[in-house]
Amino acid sequence: MGIASDRSHIPLQRCADLVIVSDTPKGRGVFASRNIPAKTVIDVCPVLVLGVEENENHIKHTSLYHYTYNWPIVDENGNHKVTQAVIFGLGSIYNHSTLDQNVGWERDAERLIVTYRALRDISAGEELCISYGGRLTFKDADSVETASEKDGLDQLNKIHLD
Ligand SMILES: C[S@@+](CC[C@H](N)C(=O)[O-])C[C@H]1O[C@@H](n2cnc3c(N)ncnc32)[C@H](O)[C@@H]1O
């Protein structure tokens, strides 16, 4: 069987000219330093799937948990469960955008990889952002403070504790 048709040989691709910017409002982030056409494969990252108990008892209590992705598994009894996976490489550095994601990601549970693709044309200088889904463990830096939240803060700022 030739290498190209062998499922155990996983071709890797990474888009050229990506840079890490270390001081964004979201911490480090990955940016494009040249235009990237829609549908370009941005990256293919290998993953480490954590055991359900390993995740619950250990990883959930560490900062690593903020870097893991939900990962569906089937246990030895055929039950479908969700655990977490650690994504190696840039996959752990893409930040979240709720309204303006420009990169989509797809799990390959059999080959233990995640593939990232440009959802639209991306311009040089743009940050590459994915969706983390509903599991945000931080305040979204993109979220705009609503008027009532701002009023509440203004009121709080006026309260003086003796
Ligand atoms: C997978 S890491 C991404 C890389 C991270 N920025 C870093 O410097 O290591 C996830 C963490 O990035 C930050 N982050 C990602 N998206 C964000 C957003 N929309 N707003 C604020 N912080 C964000 C949060 O601290 C989150 O826990």
TrEMBL record:
Residues 17-133 form the SET domain. InterPro entries: SET7_MeTrfase, SET_dom, SET_dom_sf. One of its GO terms (biological process) is methylation. Pfam families: SET (PF00856). One of its GO terms (molecular function) is histone H3K37 methyltransferase activity. Keywords: Methyltransferase, Transferase. This is Protein methyltransferase. It comes from Zopfia rhizophila CBS 207.26.
